[in-house]
Amino acid sequence: MKLEAAIRKRYGAFQLNVSFTAGSGAPLALLGASGAGKSAALRCLAGIDRPDWGRITLDGRTLFDSERRIDLPPQKRKTGYLFQQYALFPHMTVAQNIAAGLRRLPAARRRARAAELTALFHLEGTETLFPHQLSGGQQQRTALARILASEPEVILLDEPLSALDGYLRGQIEMELSEILERFGGPSIWVTHDLGEACRNCAQVCVLDGGRSSPPTAFRTLLENPRTVGAAKISGCGNLTPARPGERPGDMEAPAWGLVLRCARPWREGAAVLGVREDRIRPAAPGEENAFPCHIRRMAEDYGAVTVLLAPENAPDAGSVLRMKTSREAWAKYSGRQRLYAAIRPEDIFLLEE
Amino acid sequence: MDWFPLYNSLRIAAVSTIIVFFTGVCGAYYASRLPRAVKGVLDVVLTLPLVLPPTVVGYLLLLVLGPRRIIGAWALEAFGARLTMQWWSAVFATVVVTYPLVYRTARGAFESFDETLAQAARTLGLGNAYIFWRIRMAVCRQGILAGTVLAFARALGEYGATSMVSGYTPGRTATISTTVYQLWRSGEDGQALGWVLVNAAISAAVLVAVNLLERPRKAAGA
Hints:
The complex is a heterodimer. By secondary structure, chain A is an alpha+beta fold. Chain A has helices at about 40-45, 75, 95-100, 105-120, 135-150, 165-185, 195-200, 220-225, 230-235, 325-330; strands at about 1-10, 15-25, 30, 55-60, 60-65, 70, 80, 155-160, 185-190, 205-210, 210, 215, 240, 245, 250-255, 260, 270-275, 280-285, 290-300, 305-310, 320-325, 340-345, 350. Chain A folds into 2 domains: about 1-225, Rossmann fold (3-Layer(aba) Sandwich), CATH 3.40.50; about 240-350, no CATH class. Chain A contains 10 helices and 23 strands. In chain A, the strands form 5 sheets. In chain A, strands 3, 7, 8, 9, 10, 11 and 12 form a 7-stranded mixed β-sheet that branches. Chain A has a 5-stranded antiparallel β-sheet with strand order 2-1-4-5-6, covered by helices on one side. Chain A has a 5-stranded antiparallel β-sheet with strand order 18-22-19-20-21. The longest helix of chain A has 18 residues, at about 165-185. Chain A is elongated and about 80 Å long. Helices cover about 75% and strands about 0% of the residues of chain B. Chain B has 11 helices and no strands.
């Protein structure tokens, strides 16, 4: 089973332009900052919003095709949609909410199926409660039970953990992964949290300003991002405009006042240079890609130290690099005003806008 | 005591409440999805009867329903029926005067309705009729019912427009409010007081009902 989509839609000044394929097995992560168009993409898949152009097929069944003028209503698409706030019907009990999803089934089978789902989602004893009387986790399980009651062929999760308190999240995340595994069909997990996507999804499709990049494996996203959007969402903290230097293999980063050697060859379109915070390290003068910096500021948390470095050759004193290092490694530099920092050539990403 | 005015008032109020419930909910539903500018204009037109003096409403109604006026003349021609000075003529008056009460409360309720509920219902395969009645109306029921009960109470006490469109014929078009006026005018203060008390009792009961309906439900968790 697979869901294939290639759609475009204009929302005022915002242009959504996404294409991806989600197969069975682990979910596809739709990763992007808020406002990147993640929910809009889900709404188009579910048939709530109508794309201006494109095609959506689910296992060979066409849900939407602008050329053939096919646009199935949400009722016929069989897309289970878990809304951010779950969208439980507030005036119905847990049992009634689940039953609302069962109306596709012949009446005779509904009761047995409802009991089955109630047990499967550990909702025994809450059947007569209203949504506002449930905990966040129970609300989510009710919503999922209701979705599975409607026998969807694909499941769409819109920031499924965002409405939950921190300490509940970890546990519910595991439950959710398990439920999706049991479901077996294709699913899409929308999130802005890299870790969440990494733990639960096999592939990731980065959405930036409404545009999707081709789905890739996580390793690729972390080790070799190709666009600024992908680098940002994968936690790359240092980005600066760059151009090829005079020597082949060199990149100039004028804002930092640096010329750096890069292991990756420059390619057409790459105009930004990126380095992860934890790939900048204190170094000795004369080492490859070492440069002198002022220490602007330092912040410590339980495991790591983040240091703001201002390269001495930078034309503007406001341009800084963020370096993240362990407390142990930092111990011998604390109290200093100035140090040499270095970046290994293979740790530099060349990115397209 | 002749109970006809009570019976007449109740039937006028009942019929007009049924009419304004459906037309008001319908109008509110469609108005809530119109663009802002259109909605603004529509709002003014549909709410006007609430603030106009009832005699002005009555005058405007007579202007179209009178036997020599456009709709009145047509009805006389087509059905041989006079639209004014019947017991049910008062329904025209009460519908116009009470329409804004249902329209405004229902529109407020529809506009605060969380649209994701309807969207979720659609992805679950639920039909549009089910979504409208069992979800949208059910979630909004408190506001809409409160508006409807208020409309009933207002229809029950309508005087100005009713007296102009239906007149006062004892045993035919007399309502509680027109009867009170007539009794007072002819000096039968005792009887007028009786009707005043009846009217006050019914209105108080209705207001209690509205209060019960508007009592906030337990705070809904997010």
